[in-house]
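As promised in the previous annual report, we have extended the structural survey to additional targets. Below is the entry for Translation initiation factor.
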Amino acid sequence: MAKKKLGLENLSGFVFSTDENFNEKEYLEEGNYETPAPGEQELEAHFSNKGRGGKTVTIIKGFQGKEDDLAALGKSLKKKCGVGGSVKDGEIIIQGDDREKIMSILRKEGYKVKRVGG
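The corresponding structure token record, generated without further manual editing, is:
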């Protein structure tokens, strides 16, 4: 099996600075960064049942921004779909295979969404 290459999208949590006195923790705690507008974000809708006892879930990846905004988006999606789920490790996990419904909801809110996998 070929090893997956890591791209720059995996560096979304890093802040690069040439300032020698730059402290990333202080920067993040002070809230000096903003969540990009929905139209500037490209999300991915994945389907998975691995590691969940055969139960299917829809995973939304690629959100950039504050954890509070991610949690609010996750709560909104769960409420609109009428299902459970969680927000972990920068991903929104929604119970069931509702990719099409979730993708249409996200598109109405202005996000760019791409279907990934089966």
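The two ends are 19 Å apart (CA to CA). The mean pLDDT is 81. These points will be discussed at the next consortium meeting with the crystallography subgroup.
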